[in-house]
Structures are given as structure tokens and as C-alpha cells.
Design brief:
Length: 188
């Protein structure tokens, strides 16, 4: 991953990979010399011209638990993306995440890992928390990373008056439509 990023003039800041054995124990696992197994997750935080982008991608080769959890994580993320609009506060988006976790059957999962927030010159300039007062404005970068044990989704978006622009979308990665948006699917 580092070689591919450097080849595009992008400086890797964080590269994490977890295989099937560790997916259910760590949301941000350090890479280990272990077999990947039937499923794995790759997390990238990287900078170009001073700006940081974050993304997570997952691969599954017939791991039903990972696949079921990933679908739920996409539903939680959709709530955050729908709530991310100019004039909303980070706290309001966070409340949408909390409600979505409860709706998919994991009401306390938001407490197990940070949910993301405002990006920019650091991976997160401000992490969303309950009641966070920061008001979102057009031109801000947002990176939400809802997760459950075994599944996580993350991209970096530019908030515009007309909606969100996905800055880390890969047109070659398999996609699924969620809430009218193209979102990364599990690579199979």
C-alpha cells in the first residue's frame, strides 16, 4: 500500500491491516505477519499537499459474519452522511450515528471506537462527540468511520452546499448503492 501511495505523490501516515483472526478484536489493528484468512480490513490515512484523507476497505471471501456486520455498518454510515449538511453540528451528526447503531441492533457500539468527524490538515481536526457544538460549513472535509467488531467503513468527503463529494472513491472498487450514494462494497 505504501509503495502505491508514494507512487501517486501521496505520503502514507497510517497503514493498518487485519485479517480474519484479528478483525473482531481490533478496530485499528497494527499489521502483523499473520495470514489474512477469509476476510481482512485495510485502513489508510495519507496526505497530499498537506491535506489528509482517510479510507477503510474490506475484503471477504465467504465470511458470513463479516458480511452481515458490514451491511449494518453501511446503514449506520448512511445516517451520518445524510445528517452531514451545512448548518448541522457535529453533535447532531453524532446523534444520528447513535440512533442508527440502535436501529441496526448495536445500541452501544458508538462507545467502542471514535466515529470520525472533521478532517483537514490532520486525520481528524475535531472528533464528533455527543453534543459537540461545531457547526458544519461548506468546504469542510468529513470522514466518518462507523464500525462494529469485524466491520468498518470510511471515506473522506468534501461538504458542499449541494451535498457531499467523495474524495476517496475508487471507481474500480466494487460498490453498492446505499441511500442513493455509491459506497464501497466488500471485495469478494
Amino acid at each position: 500500500m505504501a509503495e502505491a501511495l508514494w507512487g501517486q505523490g501521496i505520503r502514507p501516515l497510517l497503514l493498518l491491516v487485519a485479517g480474519e483472526e484479528r478483525l473482531f478484536r481490533h478496530r485499528h489493528p497494527l499489521p502483523k505477519e499473520r495470514p489474512l484468512g477469509r476476510a481482512f480490513m485495510a485502513v489508510v490515512c495519507a496526505a497530499r499537499r498537506g491535506l489528509v484523507a482517510n479510507l477503510t476497505r474490506m475484503v471477504s471471501s465467504g465470511h458470513p459474519r463479516v458480511e452481515a456486520r458490514y451491511r449494518r455498518v453501511l446503514e449506520v454510515e448512511e445516517a451520518a452522511l445524510a445528517a452531514s449538511r451545512p448548518g448541522a453540528s457535529l453533535g447532531e451528526v453524532f446523534a444520528a450515528l447513535q440512533e442508527a447503531y440502535a436501529r441496526v441492533g448495536f445500541p452501544g457500539a458508538w462507545e467502542e471506537h471514535h466515529q470520525g468527524g472533521l478532517g483537514g490538515y490532520r486525520s481528524r481536526e475535531a472528533v464528533a462527540t455527543p453534543g459537540h457544538p461545531l457547526v458544519l460549513e461548506a468546504g469542510m472535509a468529513l470522514a466518518w468511520n462507523p464500525s462494529l467488531a469485524g466491520a468498518k467503513v470510511e471515506d473522506t468527503f468534501l461538504l458542499r452546499e449541494g451535498g457531499l463529494l467523495n474524495l476517496t472513491e475508487d471507481p474500480f472498487w466494487p460498490a453498492v448503492e446505499v441511500g442513493g450514494r455509491r459506497r464501497p462494497d466488500l471485495f469478494r
